[in-house]
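Dear Dr. H.,

I hope your travels went smoothly. While you were away I took the liberty of generating a structure for the chain from your last submission, since the lab meeting agenda had it listed for discussion. I wanted you to have the full record in hand beforehand rather than looking at slides cold. The sequence, exactly as received, is reproduced here:
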Amino acid sequence: MQVIADRAGVSRVTVSHILGGKFAARYKEATRERVQQLAQELNYRPNRAAQTIKNGRSNLIAIVHFGAGIEAAYKTNHALAHAITEKGFDYFALDMNWYGNNVDRALSEIIRIRVEGVIISHIQPVFTEKHIRELQDSGIPVVGVNGQPSVNFSLICDDAAGATRQLTEHLIKGGKRTILYLSPMISREPGNLNSRPEGRIQGFSQAIKRQGEYFTVSEDEFLKRCRELLHNPKKGVKGIHVVQDTELYSKVDKPVYRFCSRLFAEKRRLPDAIMCRNDFYAIELFATAMEYGIRIPEDLAVTGYDNDQLGSFAAFGVTTAEQNTQEMCTTAVDVLLKQIACPGSAYRTVTIPSKLIIRTSCGGKRTPSTGAVP
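The corresponding predicted structure, in token form, is as follows:
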């Protein structure tokens, strides 16, 4: 600041006032422009640590996110960053590894730099209630975007149960009688934020139980009992939740492709439909089907979730559910700022409806890549 003051021919206090913004209006426009131009030329950056000590606040919000390579997570992180800056705050984003030790190191850094709040995007099992309490005990409020509801922090999420229930009901209405839902096992460890039944599994089971039989089996068990399990149901429909290797999902290591390769390779009986937990994995199913000559939707109907761009192309036409990402993220930032302003505010869960998009993968009409069937 002293260098800028010397070159601009003003005092250091003047530079501080202009660059700090609070008292900038006291000075002539020409003086402000001269100081700001010199600051830009000299690549001046304020010392955030010093500002935090002086003002008692950092004006900084941390976005802790998981799975940034998945399109839905990327959309959420982008919308969160925009919503935070719109409210006059700065942010920094931590792209977390899925493994626990990285969470502990990240928390230490978040607390050290004295962020004012944390938003966790697409929380994963490695982030436990212990981690939430550690942040809150340090005076840092926490809000989640998507994940499992908890009494220990506010969560803003899509209505995954409702949307999956509607997807399942659409398949049943279209005459599908044997339906698989593929997903990893959700952790049941004490203190784990994902210890409750996942919303998408809840929605699937609710729709099936209303009209037929519901089963939960491991991948290996299903393949051993495939003929028996896929035998025409005695009443209505038969829904089977196939629990897969969690590690394959954690590493994004082709869990759906691996399963479907085993299912298709031995010419086993096929279900009428397979529901995938997102569009990314639905595309894996498409790839496997092409490899083994399985026709979609003639031989097998497919659904995803999240409405990824790739799934919208007519070549795939993935039937899916689209989250209202913008509303979720705007609401999350508003809730966090309220907790920053009013420590001790009650935690709450806000559920935002998702929109069904019906395409050719389960019998909808073929449309342009951006289109959908109501």
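Two observations you may find useful: The chain has three domains: 2-46, 55-158+324-352, 160-323+355-362. Confidence is low (pLDDT under 50) at residues 369-374.

With kind regards,
E. W.
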